[in-house]
């Protein structure tokens, strides 16, 4: 090796710790709210309240259209809600069973929330992120889109059940009608349906079918906008405003506030945990 090559190699080696540090920061996720609270205020607000942060970019006129304060918990409430999603000796979070028909679904007394959305919308990733404080819970992510043909039930301690519904848009409507429609129409302890929309592409035709179904059955549902880390801020703002307009003008049962999330950066995940704890009656906040 020449002296020059040696110097170059040594230089690169010396740069390694700094590069690793950068990589570590870039890959770091903020799964617990305590970690979020240690961040500088601006970054903390962006992770905790992504919709409010987006709203700040808008002109005063457009700002009026976004319902950012319908659910407005305190930072303390968001911290408290985390215990519901954390495995402890007294709070077991576990996968219960899967079912292809409603009469095979577990009969539980707890309130239930379900997640529906097109294949590839980011449903499994979102459920994984929500359950990241219970890492022993296995959320199966199917490799092939549309492969999850079952309803998967997860028990969150004595608090509530989470149901991961099969993705639609692939081989639907047969699977959808057989399983999802019957479930949505007949599940008695279903408290809230979370309908996932990919924020990159907005509401698609199959999403409209699912929205129509929720409206027809007069279900209370909530729109969650996934993958918000993937778009530029301008694109995201455009999508959010379009979807908000749609919710305001075309829906009855949809909760007025949108929940933008990223399962990669954990933006919006803590707020969503708090919302779920709240609507299932496990956290009393003044925020709703
Ligand atoms: P599902 O079919 O709805 O369960 O979707 P998955 O959770 O399997 O996600 C589909 C693809 O989108 C996968 O490649 C994920 O890694 C990716 N994905 C999911 N959520 C996010 C997110 O918040 N941000 C980014 N950048 N990618 C995501």
From TrEMBL:
InterPro entries: EngB_GTPase (IPR052279), G_ENGB_dom (IPR030393), GTP-bd (IPR006073), GTP-bd_ribosome_bio_YsxC (IPR019987), P-loop_NTPase (IPR027417). Keywords: GTP-binding, Magnesium, Metal-binding, Nucleotide-binding. PANTHER family: GTP-BINDING PROTEIN 8. Belongs to the TRAFAC class TrmE-Era-EngA-EngB-Septin-like GTPase superfamily. EngB GTPase family. NCBIfam families: GTPase_YsxC. Signal peptide: none annotated. Pfam families: MMR_HSR1. PROSITE patterns: G_ENGB. It comes from Ursus maritimus. Residues 109-282 form the EngB-type G domain. Its cofactor is Mg(2+). This is GTP-binding protein 8. It comes from the Eukaryota. One of its GO terms (molecular function) is GTP binding. One of its GO terms (cellular component) is mitochondrion.
